[in-house]
């Protein structure tokens, strides 16, 4: 998401339009001046940008689905992966008079490919084969009306700004090759939905309030908690239940941003054919999330952190309901916890700040460390939590910015599980860009 840098781009573009138009005039002809401004800005009102990531990993643990149920049989295994985690194209246009639209198309893991082939070994039958796994999604598409900097109305597909990673998920907004694990595990990431929102900034404060469809409790799971609840297998998003999300950020202290965000909404019966059984009467499946995050950048130090707590009411009933569903349903048919938690902190230091040539060349080289703890089954209403859903992650590495728009990454990471399970170390390399083409 490039929305975090859009205000700066808009301000720069508006100033450029004004300076260019003013330079053409030596007398005050306001009518003609406005016409020239409009003519100059037609092309400049179009904004094109994006970001992309290339990642390579060697994971020194097994990726077999039985590795947690039978750890001893999969000890000492390893596997490697090459990936394009996210490639995003941003397109926006300023229509004038406060009206604009923004859109993002995201290709995850290289997109998806399929082909129809004639199978010579099966009597020449036509067969459709999946040639590449991945996803293509319209991550954002909204129309905005800005009444003033303190009040903007957006309608359409938007990122739900709950948690640090959803609000700041571009590859230059976190250390390491991959996004922080905790929030990426227990919450949708990047969480986007068709919604109505109000946002703005006044002085040292910014805010966003959002009205959106509720999650679908049938898609909740043990390891992922509510992560998959925002997705819909249908051509539309079901909205039998509604939800509210909000975020407030403060910038009063130089170099420091403090953020508080939250979400509340019911999730049970938010499906295509909701149950009307009397035994489900009064079940709401209310999801509540509270999140705090911060960022500090000054004197060569860059630090970020977050803490998230989530609660699901009626978790025991939802677990029993989901487990009893048909194998043909979209449900994971797993137990889901009533509470999930995630916390993490990372800090890096730019060692190039002491090298004048590098400073002049606008290069940065961060040496960083990161620690995370998360548990998608922190508290159960019934049943027993799975031990491998609780883990710590320790990560260390480097982020090199040869130019401001490109970052080269390398890190060593280890997922530390309970004694009964195998730890999950890995070495990761990556390169990414975040930029505006126009």
What does this entry look like structurally?
The strands form two sheets. A 16-stranded antiparallel beta barrel has the order 1-3-4-7-8-9-10-11-12-13-14-15-16-17-18-19. Strands 5-6 form a two-stranded antiparallel sheet. Helix content is 13%, strand content 48%. The protein starts with 5 loop residues before the first helix and ends with a strand. The chain has 438 residues and is mainly β. The chain is globular and about 65 Å long. Helix 1 packs across helix 2. It contains six helices and 19 strands. The longest helix is centred in the N-terminal third of the chain and has 17 residues. Strand 3 and strand 4 form a beta hairpin.
């Amino acid at each position: 998401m490039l929305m975090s840098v859009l205000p700066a781009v808009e301000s720069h573009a508006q100033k450029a339009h004004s300076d260019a138009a003013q330079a053409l005039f030596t007398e005050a002809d306001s009518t003609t001046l406005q016409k020239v401004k409009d003519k100059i800005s037609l092309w400049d009102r179009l904004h094109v940008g994006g970001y992309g990531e290339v990642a390579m990993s060697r994971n020194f643990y097994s990726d077999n689905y039985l590795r947690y149920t039978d750890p001893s049989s999969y000890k000492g295994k390893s596997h490697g992966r090459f990936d394009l985690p996210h490639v995003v194209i941003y397109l926006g246009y300023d229509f004038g008079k406060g009206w604009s639209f923004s859109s993002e198309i995201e290709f995850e893991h290289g997109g998806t490919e399929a082909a129809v082939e004639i199978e010579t070994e099966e009597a020449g039958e036509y067969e459709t084969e999946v040639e590449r796994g991945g996803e293509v999604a319209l991550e954002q598409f909204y129309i905005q009306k800005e009444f003033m900097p303190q009040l903007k109305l957006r309608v359409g597909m938007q990122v739900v700004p709950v948690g640090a990673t959803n609000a700041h998920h571009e590859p230059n907004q976190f250390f390491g090759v991959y996004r922080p694990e905790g929030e990426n595990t227990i919450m949708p990431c990047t969480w986007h939905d068709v919604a109505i929102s109000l946002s703005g900034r006044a002085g040292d404060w910014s805010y966003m309030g959002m009205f959106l469809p509720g999650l679908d409790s049938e898609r909740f799971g043990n390891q992922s908690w509510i992560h998959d609840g925002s997705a819909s297998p249908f051509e539309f998003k079901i909205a039998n239940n509604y939800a509210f999300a909000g975020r407030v950020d403060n910038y009063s202290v130089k170099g420091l941003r403090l953020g508080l965000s939250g979400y509340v909404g019911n999730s049970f019966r938010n499906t295509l054919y909701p149950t009307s059984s009397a035994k489900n009467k009064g079940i709401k499946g209310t999801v509540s999330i509270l999140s705090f995050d911060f960022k500090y950048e000054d004197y060569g130090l860059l630090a970020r952190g977050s803490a998230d707590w989530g609660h699901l009411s009626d978790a025991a009933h939802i677990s029993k309901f989901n487990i009893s569903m048909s194998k043909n349903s979209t449900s994971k048919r797993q137990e889901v916890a009533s509470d999930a938690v995630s916390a993490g902190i990372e800090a890096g230091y730019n060692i190039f700040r002491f090298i004048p040539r590098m400073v002049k060349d606008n290069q940065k080289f961060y040496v960083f460390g990161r620690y995370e703890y998360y548990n998608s089954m922190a508290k159960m209403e019934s049943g027993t939590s799975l031990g491998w859903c609780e883990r710590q992650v320790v990560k260390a590495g480097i982020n090199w910015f040869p130019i401001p728009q490109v970052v080269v990454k390398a890190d060593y990471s280890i997922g530390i599980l309970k004694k009964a399970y195998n730890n999950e170390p890995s070495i990761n390399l990556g390169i990414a860009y975040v930029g505006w083409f126009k």
